[in-house]
Write a structure and sequence with these properties.
By secondary structure, the chain is an alpha+beta fold. The chain has three domains: about 5-85, K homology (KH) domain (GMP Synthetase, Chain A, domain 3), CATH 3.30.300.20; about 90-185, 2-Layer Sandwich (Ribosomal protein S3 C-terminal domain); about 255-325, DNA polymerase, domain 1, CATH 1.10.150. The protein is built from twelve helices and seven strands. It has helices at about 5-25, 50-55, 60-75, 90-105, 110-120, 155-160, 205-230, 245-250, 275-285, 290-295, 295-300, 305-325; strands spanning about 30-40, 40-50, 80-85, 125-135, 140-150, 160-170, 175-185. The strands form two sheets. It has a four-stranded antiparallel sheet.
């Protein structure tokens, strides 16, 4: 069999299986199913408003459905998992079936449409669209739409954020198709942009910073535990280890070599250099000693220091050096 025919047959069988499960789980509020082929067999995840009706007493109903499914469609080891719908009002298949049942009971289509829209939007949906097609009021078929909120009709957002459900209402004049499209409350559209206030950080950055703080606290606690469990007590430190400390402390009586010469001057001691210019030179990593070794062209590259001021600073530092000599 060609690959194309094989794919068509497989999709046809999946559609028939979905219709079979929808009929069997109609009393339980069928909310859709997901069919997945695994190495151990066929895995079916069925969503229902009332899972107890699908499972039955001591699992009798689910066992019967599994056996009929295996015999009718020639399946090897099918496994059916029944899940309860998180919010039936946001499940398009459940809402489409409920609206079809309301139309069969004699509700006017406008009353049923507006009531279903208010119910779905009241549960937090971002948008909903209900489409009715068929003989609504007379012998001629027509189409009516009930829309509220934000709806996507095409493109990736429509495929990703719009959930669809379909049901049929059987009336004396003929069948009425009910199609329900719902945009879930947690759908984030590409054109949604969060504008932050000055100094405000996004929630993701706040969560990351909180995790970093917690990691730092855990690291500090681990270091404290290691120090407490140190194998060498403080009183048993050999005396030879104290000698290097004394040798290091001896030179403190003499002034270090860095404090002599130009190093004893601050940047503000240079004639013509105020606090702002001193801050700019300090940010660039310059000291009085390094200015003496640098050229005027290097000083001119510091923000706020022009060629003229750099020459003036260079001459002033040279004068300080000659005065030290």
């Amino acid at each position: 069999m060609a690959v194309e025919r094989k794919l068509i047959e497989e999709n046809k069988r999946r559609l028939l299986m979905t219709e079979f499960l929808a009929r069997e789980a109609a009393r339980a509020g069928f909310g859709g199913c997901e069919i997945q082929r695994t190495p151990l067999g066929l895995r079916i995840r069925l969503v229902a408003e009332r899972p107890g009706f699908v499972i039955g007493r001591r699992g009798s109903t689910i066992q019967r459905i599994t056996k009929e499914l295996s015999d009718k469609f020639d399946l090897d080891n099918p496994q059916i998992e029944v899940e309860e719908a998180d919010d039936p009002n946001l499940n398009p298949q459940i809402m489409a079936q409920k609206m079809a049942e309301a139309l069969e009971r004699g509700w006017h289509f406008r009353r049923a449409g507006h009531s279903t829209v208010r119910r779905i939007m009241g549960s937090g949906a971002k948008g909903v669209q209900i489409t009715l097609t068929g003989k609504l009021t007379g012998s001629r078929g027509r189409m009516e739409k009930f829309t509220s909120g934000h709806i996507k009709h095409c493109g990736q957002p429509a495929e990703e954020f719009m959930d669809r459900g379909y049901a049929m209402a059987k009336k004396k004049l003929g069948t009425i198709g009910v199609q329900v499209k719902i945009m879930s409350p947690d759908a984030k559209l590409p054109d949604e942009v969060n504008v932050l206030e000055p100094g405000q950080r996004p929630q993701e950055a706040i969560e990351i910073s909180e995790e970093a703080i917690e990691d730092e606290k855990r690291a500090e606690e681990a270091l404290e535990e290691i120090e407490e469990k140190s194998p060498i007590p403080a009183g048993e430190v050999p005396e030879t280890e104290e000698e290097p400390a004394e040798a290091i402390e001896e030179p403190e009586d003499e002034p270090p070599a860095e404090e002599t010469g130009l190093s004893q001057y601050a940047l503000t001691d240079i004639p013509g250099v105020g606090p702002s210019k001193a801050d700019a030179l300090d940010e660039a990593g310059y000291t009085v000693s390094s200015i003496f070794e640098a050229s005027a062209e290097d000083l001119a590259e510091v923000p706020g220091i022009g060629p003229k001021l750099s020459e003036k600073i260079k001459n002033a530092v040279n004068d300080l050096e000659e005065g030290e000599e």
